[in-house]
Design a protein that fits this description.
mainly alpha, 0% strand
Length: 130
């Protein structure tokens, strides 16, 4: 990637495409959409790993935040519109619950992005030692 803006657009796009594909797959193949949460966390870490090259740990954290924000806004909206298969009934959405979910998922994205950046830092330190 040439710059941070390109990274953030790429991160958001990958997360949104994943949400759409996973939603359709869940609906068509009748498996619980929530079971893919671990894939989302891995994607957040990959985003952080890639973000590390721009601003070290802060870059990874910011890339994870961007991934979480894209996931909790556009990704969630598209997923809800597709109606993936979800085993458990969903609570009634209010402005408050949606706002809390957006903040929470964005912060979770930042956490896993930071974790991915820590992995990138560890790998870069290992390369320097050898």
């Amino acid at each position: 990637m040439k710059n941070k803006t390109q990274l953030f657009i790429s991160v958001a796009s990958v997360i949104i495409v994943f949400d759409v594909v996973a939603s359709f797959a869940s609906r068509l193949l009748h498996f619980d959409y929530g079971s893919l949460m671990w894939v989302t966390f891995c994607l957040y870490m990959v985003c952080g790993y890639l973000g590390f090259q721009y601003r070290q740990l802060l870059g990874g954290f910011l890339a994870g935040l961007m991934a979480g924000l894209a996931d909790s806004t556009a990704g969630w909206s598209l997923s809800v519109a597709i109606h993936p298969y979800i085993q458990h009934s969903q609570p009634r959405l209010t402005v408050f619950t949606v706002s809390v979910a957006i903040v929470f998922v964005t912060l979770v994205g930042g956490f896993f992005g930071f974790t991915g950046a820590l992995i990138a830092k560890g790998i870069s330190l290992l390369r320097v030692e050898h």
